[in-house]
């Protein structure tokens, strides 16, 4: 509450009333305080301090349940104050800042409780710069430290915390000479002052080191924290619980997930301890279940991870409902508050972690092969984290996986018992009529993706996936990743150039940390890959070619995405009748590796706060049941097949035949997809005639896989194959591995997305009824990002089919 005695315009009676109002405020007599303030305000209706004080008292009187009303009054007071200082030329900006320091602090504190950390930071930073003249500057700086940590700017938080420690040491040294022996005798047996502050600052330093991933400095701070546990005035059990959480997080970042689980699981929070932290605005039970869910996510135990996230959501809702019931707001008050934030007090709003938990749950469900449920969670989180490009990428992956899910009755990796029956059950043709009137009907390969969605209404459709990816690209473009800026920024990453250049950018991705350097490059690459696929699936071949063109121009991309970019570009060019240009992308000799992203140590933030950059222990993402290309030969075979399709479209059947023979040498007979059989039939029909094509259909295998004895003993007359149950046909490399839920993925090889942990999203491309049209596109695997207390770090992994 601001002090009104500083103003010279108040009479002696008004100053006495102001003192009475302050006494009533300190005694929590808010009704009496408001009555006195109204009397003073009659003579000073435009006084900013009176308006501020009355708003604060009314807010406290309401049980802190009207934060939006308080926010409106603060904004009004701020405008009046700015106008008054503009009219007064004698007041400088610094003087105005000092006079309004209480208003700015309270306004920033309200923004912090409402999770609007950017606005709070903009209010506190100017006061931190001038520091000394500002009243209660240490409270301002401590709040700014918490805001920096919430914004994942841990390097600034650590530097500011060091500044606060210096101020405390100077304050203590200034008061020590004034101490006399009598004072020392009185304080004998008591703990030294500022002991609680030392413990609190030690905890904050550990959090800073964890966010910076400075493992050496973090280990040192954890040791110093252990020494303070026994001498702190804080609750020993509370401090011990915080230490357990921090140590578990430390082991998590080092990749020791089992040890992190052991540390956290061995010390579950007790109800009394949880109640203690609820009083301070945090729910230990919610954080406990959330962290267990994150650990099991990294261990690829998706069922357990989903269970713990559900428990965290349940605990969060329980805390919120309990606090709302305890607030004692009547139905009349609740109705009045419907338009201004409801009956939840500001501490309840601060404790609410619903959207962060929905974000984590959505990522977990996506990895579990439940794209529709994941979409529902992530679209709810997008209401708050709409500036997160990685969230829009995840939503697009949910749409792709939901629309392009494979036939669940197929098995992706055949064993020795089903290799022969896998394609025998697939009827590639049927016959009608008899004798001279008999006709052979080639069955069109079934389409394994669903279209026809609406791009306006949110839903798991490819049309909405296109909107999500466009949102992600727009956010990156606003940050500077567009046009030539993309290529120049990526060159800086590749050449390990120092930061602070105009092309070095970072993008905030709340609720996770900001992305920069190689992680940001990987995210951008994943968005482009997904955009090219969605454009191809929706028939927008020109845009698909443009996305692939930009992707191939970027430096320092993974071999996997380079491969996918060439395949998608070739497919788009074939559809645009630019076959010569497409063939240039389909050189199997250029496929020498299919590796994932390389770890890049360039463009990292300043590592250790004290001893320079330290190695970052990056946790390994959850493993998948699906491998990313069984070998380089599989990727080369897929490209050979696509090139054979391109040559067939130009009626260069001799070249196409040679490519198919080479393709057959790369692929085992039991892995040959129906699309390759039909292409061989088409080529043989033009080169060798009808009978040779019929032989290939009869034996359902490529000519190179047929033994000479079988070919010579084949009857020249056609015997129609009885059509069995038609199973959705699968393109090349369908034996790569199991889909996320243990069923068959519909095609292609596997390739990968961005940095961090891995995800599984089945994303096959549409098939064409005409065998030689189109080209085969491999599956894509996109990896999510590194996680600490929240899931998702930077990238993605999506499984891709082909046409």
Polypeptide structure, described:
By secondary structure, this protein is an all-alpha fold. It has helices spanning 12-26, 30-43, 48-61, 67-87, 93-99, 101-113, 117-130, 137-150, 154-175, 181-186, 195-212, 215-229, 236-253, 257-265, 271-279, 284-298, 302-326, 331-336, 346-351, 354-367, 371-381, 389-403, 421-424, 462-478, 484-494, 517-537, 541-553, 559-575, 579-585, 632-649, 653-666, 674-687, 690-699, 708-713, and strands at residues 429-432, 439-442, 506-507, 515-516, 762-763, 799-800. The strands form three sheets. Strands 1-2 form a two-stranded antiparallel ribbon. Strands 3-4 form a two-stranded antiparallel sheet. It has a two-stranded parallel sheet with strand order 5-6. Helix 3 runs antiparallel to helix 4 (67-87). The radius of gyration is 33 Å and the shape is elongated. It starts with 11 loop residues before the first helix and ends with a strand.
């Amino acid at each position: 509450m601001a002090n009104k005695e500083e103003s010279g315009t108040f009479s002696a009676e008004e100053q006495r009333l102001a003192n009475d109002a302050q006494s009533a405020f300190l005694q929590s007599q808010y009704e009496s305080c408001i009555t006195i303030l109204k009397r003073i305000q009659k003579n000073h209706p435009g006084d900013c301090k009176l308006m501020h004080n009355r708003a604060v008292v009314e807010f406290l009187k309401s049980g802190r349940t009207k934060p939006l009303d308080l926010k409106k009054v603060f904004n009004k007071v701020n405008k009046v104050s700015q106008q008054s200082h503009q009219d007064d030329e004698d007041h400088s900006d610094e003087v105005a800042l000092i006079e309004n320091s209480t208003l700015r602090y309270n306004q920033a504190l309200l923004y912090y409780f409402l999770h609007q950390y950017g606005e709070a930071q903009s209010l506190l930073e100017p006061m931190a710069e001038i520091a000394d003249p500002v009243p209660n500057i240490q409270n301002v700086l401590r709040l700014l430290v918490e805001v920096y940590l919430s914004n994942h700017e841990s390097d600034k938080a650590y530097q500011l915390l060091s500044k606060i420690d210096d101020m405390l040491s100077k304050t203590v040294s200034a008061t020590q000479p004034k101490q006399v022996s009598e004072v020392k005798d009185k304080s004998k047996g008591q703990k030294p002052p500022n002991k609680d502050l030392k413990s609190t600052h030690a905890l904050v330093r550990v959090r800073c080191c964890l966010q910076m991933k400075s493992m050496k400095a973090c280990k040192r701070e954890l040791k110093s924290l252990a020494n303070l546990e026994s001498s702190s005035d804080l609750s020993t059990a509370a401090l011990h619980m915080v230490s357990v959480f921090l140590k578990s997080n430390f082991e998590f970042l080092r990749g020791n997930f089992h040890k992190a689980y052991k540390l956290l699981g061995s010390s579950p929070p007790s109800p009394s301890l949880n109640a203690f932290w609820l009083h301070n605005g945090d729910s230990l039970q919610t954080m406990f279940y959330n962290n267990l869910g994150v650990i099991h996510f990294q261990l690829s135990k998706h069922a357990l991870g989903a269970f713990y996230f559900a428990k965290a959501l349940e605990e969060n809702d329980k805390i919120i409902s309990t606090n709302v019931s305890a607030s004692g707001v009547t139905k009349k008050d609740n109705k009045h508050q419907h338009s201004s934030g409801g009956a939840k007090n500001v501490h309840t709003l601060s404790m609410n972690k619903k959207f962060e938990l929905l974000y984590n749950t959505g990522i977990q469900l996506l990895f579990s092969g439940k794209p529709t449920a994941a979409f529902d969670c992530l679209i709810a989180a997008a209401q708050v984290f709409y500036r997160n490009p990685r969230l829009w990428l995840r939503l697009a992956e949910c749409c792709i996986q939901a629309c392009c899910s494979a036939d669940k009755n197929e098995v992706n990796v055949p064993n020795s018992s089903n290799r022969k029956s896998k394609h025998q059950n697939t009827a590639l043709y049927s016959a009608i009529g008899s004798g001279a009137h008999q006709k052979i009907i080639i069955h069109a390969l079934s389409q394994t993706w669903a279209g026809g969605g609406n791009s306006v209404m949110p839903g798991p459709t490819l049309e909405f996936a296109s909107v999500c990816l466009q949102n992600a690209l727009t956010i990156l473009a606003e940050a500077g990743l567009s046009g030539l800026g993309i290529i120049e920024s990526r060159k800086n990453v590749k050449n390990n150039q120092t930061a602070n250049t105009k092309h070095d950018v970072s993008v905030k991705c709340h609720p996770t940390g900001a992305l920069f350097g190689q992680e940001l490059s990987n995210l951008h690459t994943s968005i482009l890959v997904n955009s090219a696929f969605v454009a191809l699936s929706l028939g927008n071949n020109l845009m698909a070619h443009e996305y692939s063109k930009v992707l191939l121009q970027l430096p320092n991309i993974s071999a996997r995405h380079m491969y996918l970019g060439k395949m998608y570009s070739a497919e788009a060019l074939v559809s645009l009748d630019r076959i010569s240009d497409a063939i240039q992308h389909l050189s199997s000799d250029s496929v020498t590796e299919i590796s994932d992203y390389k770890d890049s140590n360039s463009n990292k933030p300043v590592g250790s706060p004290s001893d320079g950059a330290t190695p970052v222990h990056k946790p390994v993402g959850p493993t998948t049941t699906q491998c990313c290309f069984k070998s380089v030969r599989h990727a080369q075979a897929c490209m050979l097949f696509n090139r054979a399709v391109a040559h067939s479209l130009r009626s260069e059947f001799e070249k196409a035949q040679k490519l198919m023979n080479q393709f057959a040498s790369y692929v085992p007979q039991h892995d040959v997809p129906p699309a390759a059989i039909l292409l061989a039939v088409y080529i043989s029909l033009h080169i060798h005639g009808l009978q040779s094509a019929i032989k290939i259909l009869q034996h359902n295998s490529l000519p190179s896989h047929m033994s000479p004895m079988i070919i010579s003993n084949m009857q020249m007359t056609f015997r129609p194959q009885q059509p069995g149950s038609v199973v959705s046909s699968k393109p090349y490399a369908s034996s790569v591995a199991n889909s996320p839920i243990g069923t068959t993925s519909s095609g292609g090889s596997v390739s990968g997305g961005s940095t961090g942990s891995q995800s599984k999203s089945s994303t096959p491309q549409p098939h064409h009824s005409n065998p030689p049209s189109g080209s085969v596109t491999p599956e894509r695997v996109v990896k999510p990002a590194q996680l600490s207390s929240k899931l998702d770090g930077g990238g993605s992994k999506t499984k891709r089919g082909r046409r």
